[in-house]
TrEMBL record:
Gene3D superfamilies: ApaG domain. SUPFAM superfamilies: ApaG-like (SSF110069). Residues 3-128 form the ApaG domain. It comes from Flavobacterium polysaccharolyticum. This is Co2+/Mg2+ efflux protein ApaG. InterPro entries: ApaG_domain, ApaG_sf.
Length: 128
């Protein structure tokens, strides 16, 4: 698990290799990740959007921007946390992701970015 704190918001990531399958005559490697967002600040905040940079070891890189996370824009009061799971497909058994969440602080009404640490995506069979 990797973690990082930005402005009192802690992001922790846990990854898992889910297996391989064929789609359009090509093998894909499926990975899941679980993100936990913890509010260690003194203010209530809301996640409004996300930005992901997905790196594949075969140099297929993708940028994904979108509203909220899995259809939600969670509000976190001080001391609260939100956990969700999602996933991605790679063309190879190795890769990585990083990104940030755009958030708003309800006390100051200011927008800010909370960075998601770089996390590796690695198929268990490829570790040897």
């Amino acid at each position: 698990m990797v973690s990082q704190i930005t402005r009192g918001i802690k992001i922790s990531v846990l990854t898992s290799f889910e297996g391989t399958y064929f789609k359009n005559y090509k093998i894909h490697f499926a990975f899941s990740y679980q993100i936990t967002i913890e509010n260690h600040s003194k203010d209530s905040v809301q996640l409004t959007s996300r930005h992901w940079e997905i790196y594949d070891s075969l140099n297929y890189n993708e940028v994904v921007d979108g509203e909220g996370v899995i259809g939600k824009k969670p509000v976190l009061k001080p001391g609260e946390q939100h956990t969700y799971s999602s996933g991605c497909l790679l063309s190879s058994p190795y890769g990585a992701m990083k990104g940030y969440f755009n958030m708003i602080n309800f006390t100051t009404t200011k927008n800010f970015k909370v960075f998601v640490p770089n996390f590796r995506l690695c198929a268990s069979f490829a570790l040897n």
